[in-house]
Amino acid sequence: MTIPSIMDVEVCGKTLVVRADLNVPVEAGKVTDATRITRFAGGMKPLLERGARLVIITHFGRPTPNVLDPAFSVNTLRPALSDALGVPVKFSDTCATNAAKVRADALANGEVLLCENLRYNPGETTNDPGFAAALAELGEFYVNDAFSCAHRAHASTEAIARLMPSYAGPLLMEELSMLGAALEDPERPSVALVGGAKVSTKIAVLKNLVAKVDHVIIGGGMANTFLFANGAPMGKSLHEADQIDTVREIQSLAQRANCALHLPEDVVAAKDFAAHARHDIVRNDACPADAMILDAGPRALTRFQSILAECRTILWNGPLGAFEIQPFDQSTMRLAQSAADLTRQGLAVSVAGGGDTVAALNVAGVADDFTYVSSAGGAFLEWLEGKTLPGIAALQDAAKAA
C-alpha cells in the first residue's frame, strides 16, 4: 500500500500538524547534537516556501506525566530549530488545549509553531483518543515525519492519523524508500551485518533476515553464542549458554533459505576488558579459559571484507566487537571503512541503523559515506524484524479510507 506524501499536496495556506522526533541531546540548556533537527528542517523548508503553516509536535525525553519539569520543555530546542529552519519559531506552552489552537490558528503562511512536550500529557503514551482529537484540532492535515517513533502506538503517531487527512513527511518517505530498497527489493547479492551483545534480543531480526538476504555476518557477543553452540570454548566471554536451540533454529532457517551465515574464524581475546589491554589473536575455538573474546580477528576481517566486495547491497545493524575501546574496535572500524569505500565507488548500496551502529560509523568517520544511515533505534530494529509499525499502519489505513 502506497502511503501518500505531503510533498504531493497543495499546502499553501494550510496548517499542518507535523509529528517530528526532536528528541536530541541537551546539556546546560543547549542542544549538543542537532543532527535530527537539521535533517527534519531540511524536509520542512520546501513546505514553508510553498506557504504551509507548520504546527510541530514532538516528545523530548521521558518526563513524568502531568509533571511540568522544565528540564523536559521543548522550548529548549527552539533556538536550534529556528536556526535550522531559517525562520523564527513561535512557541506554545501547551500542545492540546484551546490556547494552543488559538496560536495555531494565528499562524500566517510560512510560519512555524512549536508545541510543548507531548509526554507531559499521559494521553500521549496511552494512545488516548481524546488527546489525539485535541491535537487534530491544531490543523487541517496530519504529517508523520518521525519514522523513529512509528513503532509506538501513541496518540501523536497512531490515533491522530485516523482523525484527519494524513500523510507521510519527506524524512519518513525517504526512510521507507531506503529501507525497502535494502531489504524488500535489494540489489543482489545482499549481505546483512548483525552485531551486538545478545542473540536473545535479535532472534526475530535474524529469523527475518536469513529469509531476505544472501549472506549474514554475525559479530559481537552474538557471534560468541553461535560459536559456543558449535562447540567452541568461551572462557570468560559474553555469551548466552541458554540460546543453543535458538542458534540451531536460525541455522536451519538459513540453510533452507540458502542464506550463508558467517562467523569470525579467528578472534581477539584478552584477560581484561580495558582499553589497550594485552591481547592475543586465536582461532575461534581456542579462547583461553581466563580470557574473553572482544573482537573479530584479522583473518575474519579479511573474509568479511571479501564478502562485502561481492555484494551490491549492505545492511548493517550492530558492531562486530567492543568498539567503544581500543584496540577492540578494529573489525568494526575497518569493515565500516570498506563498506564506505564500496559505496563511494558506486559498487554497493549501504544502509545502516541502530544507536550503536550510528555511533560506530561516526567514530570511523564514514557515516556520511553510507547511502543511508537511519537515526531510528527501536523502529529500525522492529522493521528488521519484519513487524508492521503502528504509525505506518495508521497512515496506510488512512490512505485506504480516503
UniProtKB/TrEMBL annotation:
Q: Which domain of life is it from?
A: Bacteria
- Binding of ATP, residues: 202, 324, 354-357
Recorded GO cellular component terms are:
cytosol
Record-annotated residues binding substrate? Answer: 21-23, 36, 59-62, 119, 152
Q: Name one Pfam family in it.
A: PGK
So where does (2R)-3-phosphoglycerate get bound? Answer: 36, 119, 152
List locations, semicolon-separated: Cytoplasm
Does the keyword Nucleotide-binding belong to this entry? yes
The reply on keyword Transferase is yes
Q: Which reaction does it catalyse?
A: (2R)-3-phosphoglycerate + ATP = (2R)-3-phospho-glyceroyl phosphate + ADP
Q: What is its EC number?
A: 2.7.2.3
EC class, as a word, reads: transferase
Citing just one GO molecular function, the answer is: ATP binding
Per the record, the pathway is: Carbohydrate degradation; glycolysis; pyruvate from D-glyceraldehyde 3-phosphate: step 2/5
Q: What UniProt keywords apply to this chain's record, in alphabetical order?
A: ATP-binding, Cytoplasm, Glycolysis, Kinase, Nucleotide-binding, Transferase
- GO terms under biological process: gluconeogenesis; glycolytic process
The subunit field of the Swiss-Prot or TrEMBL record says: Monomer.
Per the record, the similarity remark reads: Belongs to the phosphoglycerate kinase family.
Q: Which PANTHER family match?
A: PHOSPHOGLYCERATE KINASE, PHOSPHOGLYCERATE KINASE 1, CHLOROPLASTIC-RELATED
Supply the name of the protein. Answer: Phosphoglycerate kinase
Query: From what organism does this protein derive?
Result: Celeribacter baekdonensis
Its ancestry begins with: Bacteria, Pseudomonadati, Pseudomonadota, Alphaproteobacteria, Rhodobacterales
Q: Which gene encodes it?
A: pgk
